[in-house]
Design a protein that fits this description.
Protein name: DUF4913 domain-containing protein
Helix content: 40-55%
Strand content: under 5%
Region (Disordered): 97-120
Biased composition (Basic and acidic residues): 108-120
Oligomer: single chain
Number of helices: 3
Pfam families: DUF4913
Radius of gyration: 16 Å
InterPro entries: DUF4913
């Protein structure tokens, strides 16, 4: 497990981090915490193709790793639920969030906002 944030990783290290994240998202997060996909709560079946989703989910996974470690104490999972889960899932599943336009069986790539060059 890498303690470095996924956006700072490259190459094989980044691929391994994404693989670990995918196992956690598909094996634990979605089966336990994902609610039905609707137009008001979208989810992309190819969530890993959304950089914002990867960043948010990786942060959530890192917090999970820390707060569910037995050395953290018995309140760790409650803190994870209170301080991390609801906020990240609400941001990702917001109708205007990173999965806007995605639906079961359909991924819609997003373009980042255009940025004008800064004058000197």
């Amino acid at each position: 497990m890498s303690a470095q944030f996924i956006l700072y990783l490259e190459g094989e290290e980044q691929q391994q981090a994404l693989k670990n994240l995918t196992v956690w998202v598909n094996g634990l997060l979605l089966p336990v915490y994902a609610r039905e996909t609707t137009s008001n709560a979208p989810w992309c079946p190819r969530w890993w193709e959304h950089a914002e989703a990867v960043a948010q989910l990786y942060g959530l996974w890192m917090a999970w790793q820390e707060l569910t470690d037995p050395a953290t104490g018995m309140t760790g999972p409650a803190l994870w639920h209170r301080d991390h889960l609801a906020h990240v899932m609400a941001a990702l599943r917001d109708p205007a969030g990173p999965f806007a336009g995605c639906k079961p069986g359909g991924h819609r790539p997003k373009e980042p906002p255009q940025v004008d060059e800064r004058g000197s």
